[in-house]
Amino acid sequence: MPSIDEILASSPLAGLQRVSLSGGDRQVALIQLAENFTDLDSAPAASLVVLSRSASEQVGDYRLDMALRWAAIHDVAAVAAFSAEAQPWEPTITARDIAARAGIALISVPPDTDLTGLVQAIVRAVMVGSHC
Fold first, then answer.
1. What mean pLDDT is predicted for residues 40-65?
2. Residue 8: CA atoms inside 13 Å, Cβ hemisphere, count?
3. pLDDT of residue 129
4. pLDDT by residue (tens digit) across 58-104?
5. Which residues contact 32 (CB under 8 A, 6 or more apart)?
6. Phi and psi at residue 49, in whole multiples of 5°?
7. Spatial separation of the C-alpha atoms in residues 48 and 106, rounded to whole Å
8. 62: how many CB neighbours lie within 10 A of its CB?
9. Taking all residues of the chain, what is their mean pLDDT, rounded to a whole number?
10. How far apart are CA 94 and CA 60, in angstroms?
11. 127: helix, coil or strand?
């Protein structure tokens, strides 16, 4: 299984950026799309959860903190959110703290990224990394 940092280093995903200090060494086995924060309640272990654009618009909300706590319980490897502007997503201090304690990588996705193409590229990166 590839690590978060290995996935982010792959050519098609070079625009993504880890915005947390920890979690880059976490291995990813699955990809999950989350339409809302409650989807993190049931995210499987070792998954990279990509928040939809509408969920990403609410990442400054306290509900992300609660969702990250559930993600930590389920041993989620990473959570990716679309940034609102050309600048990378800047998670709140509490979100960063929760993620750091759980070893969850937080990933910023450029706003102009195609969601379908992103998920497909991550799946390919995970599949290639799993066969090494």
1. 93
2. 23
3. 66
4. 998 899 999 999 999 999 999 999 998 888 999 999 999 999 999 99
5. 39, 43, 44, 47, 48, 49, 50
6. -100, 120
7. 10
8. 11
9. 92
10. 10
11. helix
**Dihedral angle sign, alpha carbons of residues 33, 41, 65, 96:** negative
SS3 78: strand
How many residues can be counted in the chain? 132
Report which secondary-structure segment, H or E, holds 30: strand 30-34
- Quick one: angle between helices 93-102 and 62-73, nearest 10? 0
- Determine if residue 46 is left, alpha or beta; phi over 0 gives left, psi from -120 to 50 gives alpha, anything else beta: left
How far is the CA of 38 from the CAs of 9, 43, 107, in angstroms? 29, 9, 18
Whether 80 contacts 107, CB under 8 Å: yes
